[in-house]
């Protein structure tokens, strides 16, 4: 240890030197009597510690500490003073001294320990100061990075992001930046800068990396930026100033910039798809709000009726006639709740594409009679059958539900004494069931919206007649799924005629579409959600598997007409499993090189496809399913 002793008293100086001479290891000591001489020595050389007297010929008190600090800011200082005031000792430490010793109360062991501890405290203080300065630099770097990320994610389109990248990389690194584009053809890959200059070997090698690639000397860092397909599409070449190579913090910040830029580019590509789905999301939100309103309003009324009458019956306040009326009211409210529950369940299945329909030949006259029978005694229904042998191909329960909804609407919105007319006719190609009432009718301008979910005529809303607006919506879906339609003729105050038009049995057998059960295998969460949404929107029953293992398990549970495989996130083994299965579905690929393994696929879609592309692929899958008589290709 090398110690500078600043002491004007020769006796005190000799004692200190004696104490330090016997220390192990030995302490080298230099002695001066004046502060000016000490400052000159400190300016020329380094000392491990300074022993400083506060009463010197040329300086008195705490000012001597400040003057030593001004010349040697990182010097360890121990005060050796004849003054024992506690306040002075505290002030000396606050001024920058590491310890305060009192003359006459110090032995060699205490002095040696004080000097050693002072050196260690000063070194710790210096390290903390260095760490704080480094932390401030890194915080400034992170602030620049945060600002850059904000600019990237607020940019719209690939071109804007790519134009921002060089400036952002330069702001973060302080170096020079060049942007290169990776161009891939079927058999070759080239890398060129925006000015058309070819890239060197280091940049070309970085095109296969997944993270920032620094040169061994840290004078250069290349950032591979992934496009929407997950492969490198751009390379940002960042070169440091010659005087200062990149630090670990610089490389880390550039890696974060690379990561943010890849995400921003992918977001830009997906923006068009998100905008396309926006209208659908808005409709679903409206559906959710409307459904909550229906559940809150329409379920509350019947429940209030039931609870009120049950309380009254429990209190025995009704006479026999009133009790009978109360039981009838409770029964009607319970039936109303049952209808609402059935409609809500059917609505959920329809919205999810899970309304499965069986197919069997049905005698339409018999079906109409079954629907009318429960109304006997409640309402006079005139049934006219002009086509007694009319048959359709369909699901008995669902067609009964559709016809019952239409018939009960006629009963609900017409006076109690007014008859309801039901007429069945046909021409061999189609079957028509016309339900006519003399009720309140529907305003002409509102007929076009009558089959929207939760839609009711404005005059129906103003009336005291209860309704959820689900019946006609569900009836229309069911009839459409059977290849038919519902026509409406109405006049306010005079009544309405709802005509269900269905293909006759022979015509339906020739033209019925194939209802596809589709399994989508995709590990990409966004793409998987989009696939399921679009499949259900196209009338398919859809399931999602997020791995090949899940898909294989799903195949063991239920049969599928079509299998969609995202080739970039699902293992190739799933295709092999599908090709060797006993009941092979139609196969649709998403991603991969166009034409690759074309013989294995019924349809191939690019990684970024439009709704129309998927609809066309489903059409090919439906034709495959409709024409495949035996398993296999």
| Helix content estimate | 40-55%
Q: What structural class results from the helix and strand content? A: alpha/beta
Strand order of the largest sheet: 2-1-3-6-7
Q: What is the CA-based Rg, rounded?
A: 43 Å
Low-confidence stretches: 629-633
State the assembly state of the protein chains. single chain
Tell me the number of strands: 24
Largest sheet: 5 strands, parallel
Quote the beta fraction.
Answer: 15-25%
| Shape estimate | elongated
Number of helices: 19
> Kindly state the mean pLDDT as a whole number?
81
How many angstroms does the end-to-end distance come to? Answer: 89 Å
Primary descriptors:
24 strands; five-stranded parallel beta sheet; 633 residues; five-stranded antiparallel beta sheet; 20% strand; alpha/beta; elongated; 48% helix
Please tell me about this protein's structure:
It contains 19 helices and 24 strands. It is 48% helix and 20% strand. The chain is α/β, with parallel strands linked by helices. The strands form 6 sheets. The protein has a 5-stranded parallel beta sheet with strand order 2-1-3-6-7, with helices on both faces. A 5-stranded antiparallel beta sheet has the order 9-8-12-11-10. A 5-stranded mixed beta sheet has the order 14-16-17-19-18. A hairpin with a 5-residue loop joins strand 10 (213-214) and strand 11 (220-226). It is elongated. The longest helix is centred in the middle third of the chain and has 51 residues, at 248-298.
């Amino acid at each position: 240890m090398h110690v500078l002793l600043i002491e004007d008293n020769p006796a005190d100086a000799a004692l200190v030197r004696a104490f330090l001479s016997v220390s192990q290891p030995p302490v080298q000591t230099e002695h001066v009597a004046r502060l000016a001489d000490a400052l000159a020595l400190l300016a020329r050389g380094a000392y491990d510690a300074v022993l400083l007297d506060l009463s010197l010929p040329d300086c008195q008190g705490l000012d001597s500490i400040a003057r030593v600090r001004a010349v040697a800011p990182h010097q360890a200082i121990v005060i050796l003073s004849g003054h024992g005031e506690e306040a002075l000792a505290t002030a000396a430490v606050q001024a920058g001294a590491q310890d305060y010793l009192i003359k006459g109360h110090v032995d060699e062991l205490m002095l040696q320990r004080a000097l050693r501890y002072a050196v260690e405290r000063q070194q710790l203080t210096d390290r903390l100061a260095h760490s704080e300065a480094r932390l401030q630099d890194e915080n400034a770097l992170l602030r620049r990075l945060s600002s850059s990320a904000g600019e990237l994610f607020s940019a719209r389109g690939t071109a804007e992001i790519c134009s921002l990248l060089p400036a952002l990389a330069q702001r973060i690194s302080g170096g020079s930046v060049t942007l290169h584009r990776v161009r891939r053809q079927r058999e070759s890959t080239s890398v060129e800068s925006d000015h058309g200059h070819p890239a060197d070997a280091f940049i070309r090698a970085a095109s296969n990396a997944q993270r920032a690639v620094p040169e061994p000397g840290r004078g250069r860092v290349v950032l591979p930026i992934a496009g929407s397909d997950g492969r490198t599409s751009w390379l940002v070449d960042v070169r440091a100033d010659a005087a200062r190579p990149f630090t670990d913090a610089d490389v880390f910040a550039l890696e974060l910039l690379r990561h943010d830029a890849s995400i921003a580019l992918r977001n830009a590509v997906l923006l068009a798809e998100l905008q396309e789905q926006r209208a659908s999301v808005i409709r679903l939100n409206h559906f959710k709000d409307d459904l909550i309103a229906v559940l809150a309003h329409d379920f509350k009324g019947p429940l209030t009726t039931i609870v009120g009458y049950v309380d009254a019956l429990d209190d025995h306040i009704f006479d026999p006639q009133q009790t009978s009326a109360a039981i009838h009211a409770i029964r009607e409210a319970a039936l109303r709740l049952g209808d609402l529950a059935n409609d809500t369940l059917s609505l959920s299945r329809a919205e999810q594409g899970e309304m499965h329909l069986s197919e069997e030949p049905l005698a339409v006259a018999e079906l109409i009679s079954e629907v009318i029978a429960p109304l006997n005694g409640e309402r006079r229904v005139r049934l006219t059958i002009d086509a007694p042998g009319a048959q359709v191909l369909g699901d008995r329960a669902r067609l009964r539900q559709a016809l019952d909804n239409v018939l009960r609407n006629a009963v609900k919105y017409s006076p109690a004494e007014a008859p309801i007319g039901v007429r069945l006719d046909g021409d061999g190609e189609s079957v028509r069931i016309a339900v006519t009432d003399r009720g309140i009718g529907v305003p002409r301008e509102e007929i076009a919206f009558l089959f929207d979910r939760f839609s009711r005529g404005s005059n129906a809303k103003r009336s005291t007649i209860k309704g959820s607006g689900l019946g006609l919506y569900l009836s229309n879906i069911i009839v459409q799924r059977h290849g038919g339609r519902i026509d409406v003729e109405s006049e306010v105050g005079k009544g309405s005629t709802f005509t269900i038009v269905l293909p006759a049995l022979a015509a339906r057998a020739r033209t019925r579409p194939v209802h596809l059960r589709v399994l989508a295998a995709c590990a990409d969460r966004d793409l998987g959600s989009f696939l399921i949404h679009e499949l259900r929107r196209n009338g398919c029953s859809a399931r999602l598997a997020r791995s090949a293992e899940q898909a294989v398990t799903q195949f063991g549970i239920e049969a599928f007409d079509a299998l969609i495989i995202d080739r970039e996130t699902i293992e190739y083994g799933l295709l092999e499993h599908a090709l060797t299965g006993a009941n092979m579905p139609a196969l649709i690929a998403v991603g991969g090189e166009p034409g690759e393994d074309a013989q294995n696929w019924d349809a191939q879609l690019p990684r970024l496809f439009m709704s129309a592309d998927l609809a066309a692929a489903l059409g090919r899958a439906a034709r495959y399913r409709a024409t495949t008589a035996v398993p296999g290709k």
